[in-house]
Amino acid sequence: MKNILICLFVLFIGSESNEETIIWDATKKLTWSDFKASPDKESDAVALTASGITFGYSVQTSGKRITEFSTLVESHFYPNKSWYVKASSDVHILAHEQLHFDITELYARKFRAQIAKLQVNQNIKKQLNKLHGDINAELNEAQKKYDLETTHSINAVEQRKWSNYIEKELNRLEEFKAL
């Protein structure tokens, strides 16, 4: 039976949590020690990555009129929800898992780019929530497509194509990385 990798993607709307997270950083790659949850013994998967985009916003008002808004968009990895089977995992699978986290960052940058185009208006909350829903759907589709096309890391040629594509896209959207 082929090993299957499963990835879990979570998007939150500005919720405060004491849950341990790792914020995406181009200079820090995931290691197996970051995967702290116990493997699911019922699963055929050899690893599970939990990552997502946290999103929050605030608005300033004058009377009932919105005068300014600010947002916070971050890519997170959730160690206590991520796991791997030590005997079945290797550097190739870890690179596949890292790319899932990189894809999350790519969509966070796309989200920030869309937010940067918005002008203050009385519908800004509705616009932000719609953008969030749309980016969530796009991220989930991209993650599914990545696993499908790479056969969960088994197809090395497709894995390289995806790695190159994500690297190129992250560079293209460099101006929208988190500060």
TrEMBL record:
Recorded hits in InterPro entries, A to Z, give: DUF922
The domain of life is: Bacteria
User: Mind telling me what this protein is named?
Assistant: DUF922 domain-containing protein
